[in-house]
Specification:
TIM Barrel; two-stranded antiparallel sheet; 392 residues; homotetramer; eight-stranded parallel barrel; alpha/beta
Chain lengths: 392, 392, 392, 392
Amino acid sequence: MTSRSDVSAVKAALRTQAIETPSWAYGNSGTRFKVFAQPGVPRNPFEKLDDAAKVHEFTGAAPTVALHIPWDRVEGSGGYAKLAKHAEERGLTLGAINSNTFQDNDYKLGSVCHPDAAVRRKAVDHLFECVDIMDATGSKDLKLWFADGTNYPGQDDLRDRQDRLAEGLARVYERLGDDQRMLLEYKFFEPAFYATDVPDWGTAYAHCLKLGPKAQVVVDTGHHAPGTNIEFIVATLLREGKLGAFDFNSRFYADDDLMVGAADPFQLFRIMYEVIRGGGLASDVAFMLDQCHNIEAKIPAIIRSVMNVQEATAKALLVDGEALAAAQRAGDVLAANAVVMDAYNTDVRPLVAEVREESGLHPDPIAAYHASGWAGRIAAERVGGEQAGWGA
Amino acid sequence: MTSRSDVSAVKAALRTQAIETPSWAYGNSGTRFKVFAQPGVPRNPFEKLDDAAKVHEFTGAAPTVALHIPWDRVEGSGGYAKLAKHAEERGLTLGAINSNTFQDNDYKLGSVCHPDAAVRRKAVDHLFECVDIMDATGSKDLKLWFADGTNYPGQDDLRDRQDRLAEGLARVYERLGDDQRMLLEYKFFEPAFYATDVPDWGTAYAHCLKLGPKAQVVVDTGHHAPGTNIEFIVATLLREGKLGAFDFNSRFYADDDLMVGAADPFQLFRIMYEVIRGGGLASDVAFMLDQCHNIEAKIPAIIRSVMNVQEATAKALLVDGEALAAAQRAGDVLAANAVVMDAYNTDVRPLVAEVREESGLHPDPIAAYHASGWAGRIAAERVGGEQAGWGA
Amino acid sequence: MTSRSDVSAVKAALRTQAIETPSWAYGNSGTRFKVFAQPGVPRNPFEKLDDAAKVHEFTGAAPTVALHIPWDRVEGSGGYAKLAKHAEERGLTLGAINSNTFQDNDYKLGSVCHPDAAVRRKAVDHLFECVDIMDATGSKDLKLWFADGTNYPGQDDLRDRQDRLAEGLARVYERLGDDQRMLLEYKFFEPAFYATDVPDWGTAYAHCLKLGPKAQVVVDTGHHAPGTNIEFIVATLLREGKLGAFDFNSRFYADDDLMVGAADPFQLFRIMYEVIRGGGLASDVAFMLDQCHNIEAKIPAIIRSVMNVQEATAKALLVDGEALAAAQRAGDVLAANAVVMDAYNTDVRPLVAEVREESGLHPDPIAAYHASGWAGRIAAERVGGEQAGWGA
Amino acid sequence: MTSRSDVSAVKAALRTQAIETPSWAYGNSGTRFKVFAQPGVPRNPFEKLDDAAKVHEFTGAAPTVALHIPWDRVEGSGGYAKLAKHAEERGLTLGAINSNTFQDNDYKLGSVCHPDAAVRRKAVDHLFECVDIMDATGSKDLKLWFADGTNYPGQDDLRDRQDRLAEGLARVYERLGDDQRMLLEYKFFEPAFYATDVPDWGTAYAHCLKLGPKAQVVVDTGHHAPGTNIEFIVATLLREGKLGAFDFNSRFYADDDLMVGAADPFQLFRIMYEVIRGGGLASDVAFMLDQCHNIEAKIPAIIRSVMNVQEATAKALLVDGEALAAAQRAGDVLAANAVVMDAYNTDVRPLVAEVREESGLHPDPIAAYHASGWAGRIAAERVGGEQAGWGA
């Protein structure tokens, strides 16, 4: 088992892990059938940061917040500096800038892959705007998810669309500063239902490879075909030096966007094991959440998600590497599997609670949040105005 | 091959096939990411019927229109009679009444399966209202799709929800008139992402069996797990006397709601073969469309869908039953498969065009629709007001 | 959390749980590509029982052994009585009799569903033989898995095959004694690749319902479409009084037949939760393993599997029912989910070890098995003869 | 529609298409449950070529035969030259050499990825032997499918296995002659059930990219996750210059290895469309079959498969490129889709029959084969000896 000194190392590693929460998870979201609005939902990016600050206050592990443009667009000169300052005052930093090229009417048939050059230009201009915002906020990461694709065979030329994609990405890549990255996300399907232009890690990888070292792949844990071994992809991308970030969430069926760790906690553990195995914990791999809390209270759901990532990481850190390597070398299938399962079966909640307490935090972030009265306060104060949501 | 007299029989069978189009397919729809509005979309149920009349005018095969309550609610006394008359004047009949227990804020955690008895009562009252409307319109079918389910393990008790479902269904069943049916739809997932309360045909079948002969199962071709053999389910339900209706559409991934026949035309043919084999063509099985034309023009997409069902039916009717039975009896796998493939590989478009011409229709409904100028006319006339859509 | 008295109840419940191991898991198995033989594998049913006795000796939880006919056929009069006595002397009882209608050349196109009546007769005769063996061994359960199906559309008539299936089952059902059951297994696919004659729980349920109370459904955890919510099926079958048995194993992709609990331990926990919720633990639901240990040592793999079921059961028993019901009633999604996750995240290995020690067993069955020297002994002694395997 | 001159071009293109049949498809095969032997099955590589010659004789489109080592190993000096001459005398050429590193006992835990260097060496030596055979037979393609993978999390280190794979591939790559290629196949799962070492096109692509221009990817149409858009992968690999070959077959569920075109003929058409669109028809992309005719007669099944590929190709060639491009440019989703569907719905069997007749062949290869009496002759003559099969 794990010795005392190992436990210290595990705790130290846990303390280094930062999880980025997405501004949009604090707003209303739903399915195509219905958005169920919740009381107290933020009405602007500043209020989203206020909520994110609560998540960080109680977990100590969520110091950055991803923005989504235009949902978090701040008008006026100095707007983003003001937003960054608002974050800083709450112990937060602004994280990745997420582009949106899917909610404008022009994007019905795609954005950077659209058959019409004018629409492609508009999309690239939006991506330039995102880089401008990065310059203003100090964000290092431009996260690109394209809803581009087709619904019917023949609707558009699959190959031409790849050419257009490559061209658009190249233009944006050139615009990146020296310390900025482009994070390219892939997705199996939705909203396109026949072909998606970046459907799998292979496609994202091939594009990033040609673009250069500042282009890296995002693994969204909900964006794969049924049965896909995600940790294999994680291991492979780390081996290739091309894993840029995670979008964490859970799925049972499609891109369900449930709380990470809720559907298959064993998978999350296996993913974190490969992250650690591949050196991803001590690297610039970004651990982001990308979730939709359609029916559950949003802030505690995000707190729970952060905790779930921490617990999976703690378990993965507890894997006895020496015993594992020995069993693997010996070809002892059961013994090797048992080493991994031993770590997984360990209840790490006390350990993670200790890490919190040693940092001056309450051991139970959910209880602390509920005790704080924040939920009631925002429900009371945030009345009037337009509640934030995907389309708002 | 098929003899001259057989061709007559095929044509006769084709002439009997009626396909019900859904009022909501004429309105705007989309994904959770975006609804792309289209010009000329109807603003009320009457205009939806006007569009549906065009589909029937050019195909001769779409004489009934399914309504969705409350989207097609008509206010005022005599409203539904007026709607029925509007339909009748255009050669149409009002078809199945589709209930909606998923777009009210109260339904966040379910409707007839909700933990709160008051919400369940509200849902059942809505279903009663739907039966009232059936009484007013003369509709024979109450089509029930419940979005009920849970997103997280433990969220609610799976078994209690079944008990509540059974109770709610029983109350509505009792309310049905002698010539009215309850059609119960199942769906693999969405909008619930952990457990759906009627997830598969087995669950729908078990409930219908207990309710009685007026309860039957709806097969929506987009509501199955990947790889599911849908024609097997069709054959089984017909054998059990429990197939009530189809909701036709296409899917590559999930409930994509594309045009029927667009993703896997061979599957549609196999389904229609089992329909015919099981006597479903000459029975009261209802052939309904349930589609979302998110990016393609809606009326011609519906016309194309009707044509696709007709062509699949024609091919299925062309299967040489005697040759097939002989090969099956002989255990000649290749010969039996070849009989089926021979029918499938036949180009039946000339045959179906002949059927149209013999009924005084243009052989090419799409061309005829485009020539009619209807699309331009509605785009010009239907301005102002609220365009119909899922949420409208 | 769980009180002291609750822990006693949990322990008591765990002590009642008996897991049936399958004789064939002790023999060689493999994929269609290769069977990798292992040293010391049994050469006959008696040696299989010797191995099964070791599993029971160290777990105290595997007192019955399922047989597979003809793999475990014992020639000569009194043969099965001798086998039963061999079992009894080792503290075991003979469990379900599993039929095999898939490895004879006559079954190329099916068994009870075959187009040729002579083959169907042969299959039914084999099932009668299985009931005869039940009479001889005192086994209560006839477990039926049919490999029947078709590989190509049109190969055979789907509906006729259902009629033949119903007829064959009815004949066997009539032959059952008063205290005997028929357990009907369904499987999504394999070895048939187009249509399987009992592909899902709905089909098995519909047949069992018509047969009568002695016919019940078997849930093999590897026999579902990707994404299927198995615990929902468990809950539903229990609610209907039609859950007869489990065939436990794990899958990542298809019917992988890995050790139960190895691929998705959270799913196994959820299944066991529904078993307990539905009264299945204190009923005659049989908990069987059905696994293939292709590359790992067989006996310790089976021991590990028994332990995995026990641990999942222990966690499920720890769910705080009152807290859960309260959260569900309140519609508190996160709180309800947290109650379930709290139990799942508990490390129950010490608790299960205590149960063992209180029964006079070693707390670690795997260590005890390795210390026993049994693996070396059988490798040395079981030389010559034909090692048991699927085809042997 | 298609003009007279276009039809000539379609015919000319069809005449250039060569489909490679696999020697192993002529031998017995089965599932893990049972191999059903067929009469007249070849007993050695020479007899397999005799059967392959019949396929080519009646289709005129199957001039090359892939070998599988060691199944087609010919002992003695000059053995392979003799085999090549046997082929030549029958109008055939020997095609790709397929390696086998999965049926030796040493390969239980892998071959080129095995934790033990001695096993890896043995595997690489086998690959060297395959290249030696290529030198002897004049084969240009070394086709590599590795069954390597793991069944349980932790069983081996995923990343180390990639390193070993890269090293083994590099050694073999160096050994290739100037006009020889390495074709790397990927497979989603089976026989490994947790992680497969080359599970997807991305992994195969990444390795081939590093190896160099002589390494290309094989797309086996049965080796993908449910729902995967295979034609997208085909388009992408062609765009990258990395599509080396197809292994054609059909699947409903997993790697079912049914006749190509039997499960989803529309998908096969879409794949062939992308092949043509990407210039793959006039390139060195190899069109191979890789199928298992477990229950149907083997030679006619292979003939049917060749015909199915031809028909799909003919339909794809009939797509009206100009009309399609115009509709795509206009963003007319329905019109673009209709162009593609128009070609697919065409009955091309008369056209392909004409191509045969113009080449002096019978228009119906299946009828011609049956009339030839070959099946009866081999059933009568090939008695005694060991029938060829996967393990023989």
